[in-house]
Structure formats: structure tokens, C-alpha cells
Amino acid sequence: MSSVAELPPSVAELIPLTLLRPGQSGTVDQVLGTGDLVHRLREMGLRRGAMIEMIRPGSPCMIRLDGHTLGIRSTELSGILVRPA
């Protein structure tokens, strides 16, 4: 079993989107999950390089993406790894 200390620095800096604090921003690095879920999230704009801001954690989780506010179940966002700004 690997620990965070064993991961490359670029991977160790990633956190699930659901862990961003209100007002905190981050850049999407990876979108993980089933094919359908990943496809749907990418269609919504949640793809690598997208800048997001956490408005309200919880379920539904409220985020800001490209000037739009989105409400998404937190279970669907747990597979999105972001690099906090």
C-alpha cells in the first residue's frame, strides 16, 4: 500500500473536489469514474485544466465553472481530483 509520502509531488498535491473549502479555487487534473459518469462530467465542462471555485460543499455541491453555478451530487464529484490554487 502506498502513502502520500511515496507518491510523486505532482500527484500528492491533488485532492478530491469535494474537499475544497467555500471560496477556494482549483484546477481539474483528473476525472475518474465509470465511462458514462466521466463522459457526462466532461460534457458539463469538468475536464482537465478547468478552473473551478467551491461555492458550497455538501450534496448538492455548488461550484462555479466558467461563470456558471452548478449543483451536483457530491458522490458524482468525489472522482474529480483538483490541484488547489
Summarize the structure.
The chain has helices spanning 9-12, 35-43, 74-77, and strands spanning 15-16, 25-31, 51-56, 61-65, 68-72, 80-84. It is of the alpha+beta class. A 6-stranded antiparallel beta sheet has the order 1-6-2-3-4-5.
Question: How would you describe what is shown here?
Answer:
- The chain is of the alpha+beta class.
- It has three helices and six strands.
- It has helices at 9-12, 35-43, 74-77; strands spanning 15-16, 25-31, 51-56, 61-65, 68-72, 80-84.
- Strands 1-6-2-3-4-5 form a six-stranded antiparallel β-sheet.
- The chain is globular, with a radius of gyration of 12 Å.
- The termini are far apart.
Name the descriptors.
alpha+beta, 85 residues, 6 strands, 20% helix, 3 helices, six-stranded antiparallel β-sheet
Q: How are the SSEs placed, and which strands pair?
A:
Layout: H1 9-12, E1 15-16, E2 25-31, H2 35-43, E3 51-56, E4 61-65, E5 68-72, H3 74-77, E6 80-84
Antiparallel strand pairs: 1-6, 2-3, 2-6, 3-4, 4-5
